[in-house]
Amino acid sequence: MGLAQDLWATPTLLGNQGWRVWAFTAMVGYVVICTTLRHSQKRAIQQKFNFRDRSSLAKMTLEDAYAIQTWLAEQQFPSVFSAAIFFALFKTYSIPSISRLLAATRQFGKPGDIQATSKRAADTSVLLTNMIMRPPGSSQAKLAVARTNYLHNIYRRTGRLSNDDMLFTLSLFTLQPMRWTAMYDWRPLSDMERCALATCFKVWGEDLEISYETLPSHSKGWIDGLHWLEELDAWSRQYEERHVEASDSNVEVVNATRELVLCQVPRSLHNLVWGIVAILLGPQIRKAMTIPEPSYRLELAFRSLITLRKFILRYASPPRPYFLRRVYNCERPDPNTGRYQSQRWLGRPWYVKTSLLDRWGLPAWMLWMNGTSSSTVFNNENFIPEGYLIEDVGPASHVGKGHEEMRDTLSALSSKSTTRCPFIH
Predict the structure, then answer these.
(1) Average per-residue pLDDT in the chain?
(2) Which residues are CB-neighbours of 115 under 8 A, at least 6 positions away?
(3) How far, in Å, are 166, 211, 258, 421 from residue 99 at the CA level?
(4) What does the alpha-carbon distance between residue 58 and residue 425 come to, in Å, rounded to a whole number?
(5) pTM higher than 0.85 for the full model?
(6) How many independent structural domains does the chain possess?
(7) Residue 34 contacts by C-beta under 8 Å, 6 or more apart in sequence?
(8) What's the domain range around 27?
(9) Is pLDDT of 8 > 50?
(10) Residue 381 located in a structural domain
(11) I need a labelling partner for 167 at 20 to 30 A (CA). Which of 30, 63, 239, 361 fits?
(12) Which of 287, 301, 391, 417 is nearest to 339 (CA)?
């Protein structure tokens, strides 16, 4: 009774000491609530799909896999997933056969041509997000696959784009979100979640006409998504070890990408931001791209911030509710034109009707601080502010072309069921 009286009953002590007890209790309660909500959400998804053990994963349908992947990308790990996909594409520039082709297409433009580089980035983003984040079998997803196949086949027919390079790119898109989630977010993916990503990307690879013949179990088939993932991971690491090397074309493409990445960063922060990019790429890729090594102090500071972020997300941040989910695609097209608006832009606002916030908010100020006049960016009709048609996305020279070839692909895709289990024989 004496302790309780000291802490709670005595007005003087309550004013001086009691608030600390209340603050500590509230803090602990908040941590318990956040942690409980995060883990209960994960358990709820696990129970919803009821994949209890490894043997049940072979029965995962494409629809199941898509639902799990969408939840991960929109609500659980949207920032890490988005960055991982961008850096997966960036890492492919360390393969000379890939960077030579990209440099030869001249889609990155001349040094300092942000407009050309940002256009290619916008087109790639449009096709990827429509392919990956639209429901399987939807008209938008099928159009994105058909358009991508048309653009790729221009180079595949001539042997300039190999199946191995395509498979390596697919492997990075598949593996990078899993690796980055484990390294940079509050928890790694579960087997069910990894299997879902593998199932989705295996099917997308097949739709993109990528052969898996180089994987050991191609002839007899894979048990489940994890089995396919294990073999893809091993093959990807070997391919990276053999083919990642320095070349002039790597440097050309990387320099163009560097200009794009930094065009909305104040000049005083260029070295800092590019140093963080170098950390994220890793030593082997840095060497192939001739990117300077980051300082030890910067790397230590970055790792410390990542550790702090993981701690805050795990213990002091409630899970993202559905209404705050990351939206990757415009839900509905313009009823008059059938065109879609991009949800985000990098460098230049391609396919976006810029808002007052764009023109006077942080994007405009960042451009101004980097020496770019915002009026030349936001008052430019060349960026197609009316939006995009998926069937015409790509270089200007290919707008309106390839539609007949795309119809053949669309017909083949329409015959595939979205409720199929890709690993059941």
Answers:
(1) 92
(2) 109, 348, 382
(3) 13, 21, 14, 36
(4) 10
(5) yes
(6) 2
(7) 315, 316, 317, 318
(8) 2-45
(9) no
(10) no
(11) 63
(12) 391
